Amino acid sequence: MDAVLETYDATDFALWPVADPPAKHLLSLSGRLSVRETGTAMAVLTSYNKSHHKARARGPEDSTGQVSQLLSTDQVIAPGGIRIQDTSTGVTAPPGCCFGLENWRDWLDFMNAEEPWLGHDPTPRTEHTGTTVHLWPDAEHPAGAPIALPLARLPELLGSVQAQLIAFLASVEEWATRYAPPLADALVAKLDEDLTIGAPLRDGQS
Prior knowledge:
By secondary structure, the protein is of the alpha+beta class. It has a domain at about 1-80 and about 160-195. It is built from 4 helices and 7 strands, in the order ββααβββββαα. It has helices at about 35-50, 65-70, 155-180, 185-195; strands at about 1-5, 25-30, 80-85, 90-95, 125-130, 130-135, 145-150. Strands 2-1-3-4 form a 4-stranded antiparallel beta sheet, with helices on one face. β3 and β4 (about 90-95) form a beta hairpin. The protein starts with a strand and ends in a 12-residue tail after the last helix. The relative contact order is 0.17.
């Protein structure tokens, strides 16, 4: 499992340097991102959440203004989510549309024999079979082997996702001290809270 961010909103972004689009426009978040890759992530988050921000007569003219708008958003929405791959078969399930990264802890619902909504286009299909969840990446095209997810491993896998996101926050802090120094601490705290990154990860709870 890894936490990924869709990068379409970083296209033609010019307020700070960004990296070239990653494969399939999915950027894996971690502490290993370059400054430009972190810039891509921040371009996505600040641009995508503009639609949730009250309209202003003029848009931000610099990086500090752009980040400031993100900080005033009620809830940060992060397009993307959890990408899961079965390493034995190579089958990969990308995140579905509208299941943002802010909902990543919903995967813990599987521990309670529930089936959380995981987005659409593609729409995954899941099926509980004893101690395993079988996941087909696209319900409209279910041919092929599903991903077999042992429930016993789910807390460990989500723990690795949490570790990736915590490390990503360190990359954000480093990036912000360069491009929006007065807001670095507030930016890290905002993302930590709205994406529920650092809070304890408990089985079956979000």
